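Tutorial, part two.
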Amino acid sequence: MKILISGASGLIGSHVSKYLSSKDFTVWSLVRSKTENNNTIFWAPSKESIESIDILEGFDVVINLSGENIVGRWTDRKKKLIRSSRVDTTNYLVDLFGKLKNPPKLFISASAIGYYGDRGDTKLTEESDPGSGFLEDVSIEWENAANKAKELGVRVVNLRIGVVLSKDGGALAKMLPLFKFGLGGVVGSGDQYWSWISIDDLSLMVEFIINNEEIKGPVNAVSPNPVNCKEFTKTFSKVLNRPAIIPVPSKVIKLVFGEMGEHAVLASTRVIPKKLLNSGYNFHDPTLEIALKNIL
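Running the prediction step on this input gives:
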């Protein structure tokens, strides 16, 4: 089976690409810098440019993982990059599908649990309504862009990804040095839910979705056991055998990160992977303690 991945150089993309290659899939990458490496296709989505339309023929699966990192202060420029790198890039990719004689059979396009917004301790499934705000609006537009591929007869999966845990990058890698030195602690009130997923499970999920044709539409890519920040801190401290006694007040998060801190770090999103559980997916890392031990 031939697979094409955009965003293959990122934390998620690189791991998914490596994993699928180990499973005898033929994996190609859409890249933004010209390279002599094999199995790469150069494109510039912001300019709606690609080296060749014909070279896109013959892919069974396209996995879209492109997107500007949301971490940082959300200036007007940053917001524009966050949106365009997701929505405009996905629109362009689907437009390219429409020019092919044989579009891919499956289009897995990243989305985010930011779709649901700040919802306290309410359990959220794929059937839950979206929230309202910047991240929520971007997620809705992102998914709408991907769903246009349905008109071409393509099976579309919107992968609503939670907080990805990996020692190679992302939130966990940033927190690890602090916790190792006993400088970790609860963020904000600590009551906010963090719906997480290990990088290994995320790769396994992608393979599971590829092999299960009945799975389509939104899929919550999260562990079945989300935890609040207090529990996350307690478990992280336990696995590392280090104290975690230095709290980070909400006002500090808001001061440092502004809108991003309030709507991402301090937001509570308790997401359940109902569709994956009903489809029989067996989690490699079902609990946070197991995940952290496997990762660290």
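The two ends are 32 Å apart (CA to CA). In part three we will examine how such features are distributed along the chain.
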